[in-house]
Structure formats: C-alpha cells, structure tokens
Specification:
Number of helices: 3
Strand order of the largest sheet: 1-2-3
Helix content: 25-40%
Length: about 100
C-alpha cells in the first residue's frame, strides 16, 4: 500500500503518482475524490448528502469507475459519476445502489 503524509487529496494523489503509477485516484469521503495523471490533477467535489451508512460506498465508487472507463468515458467524467453514485449509496442502510443507468 502506498501512503503519504498530506491531508489534501490532490497533493496525496500527486505524491503517490510520483512513486510510479501513471494515474492515481484518491477518494476523500464527503469531500469527493481527487486524481493525478500525466495531463494534470484535479478534484471532483461530492454533493452534500445526509450519510446514513457508508457500507459499500467504496465498492460502488470503484464499480462505477470501472464501468465508465471500460466504456471509454473520460477520466474526469468517470470519477464524477463514481462520486455521484457512491454519494447515493451512503444515503441508505446497507449497500444500496442507484437505479440502473441507461
């Protein structure tokens, strides 16, 4: 596991990227997510929601991200969807996901 000593998600992603990975994505709970890749670094804010249960939020984020990337969705857009999807998940008890996207 890679670690940094910064609390800032963008700085963490950038520091971890310097260790070798081409692209790094850091999830930051209610702050959203940050990423760093060869074209730059950015954050994707999370919407304000009432979190009830965080069970499955990480799994929801990763599965949404993987689905969009497999469909050649741009990285920033894929991360935005993943943040939105996982934000929905935390608003329910247990690992609920939003309705199927078409």
């Amino acid at each position: 596991m890679l670690q940094t000593t910064t609390d800032d998600p963008v700085n963490a992603a950038t520091a971890l990227q310097r260790l070798g990975p081409r692209t790094v994505i850091v999830t930051a709970g209610h702050h959203g997510a940050a990423y760093s890749h060869p074209d730059g670094a950015a954050t994707v804010p999370a919407p304000t929601v009432h979190a009830i249960d965080t069970t499955g939020a990480g799994d929801t984020f990763l599965s949404s991200l993987a689905l969009d990337l497999a469909h050649n969705i741009a990285l920033h857009n894929a991360i935005t969807t993943a943040v939105q999807t996982s934000s929905h998940t935390v608003q329910h008890v247990g690992a609920h996901t939003p309705a199927h996207r078409t």
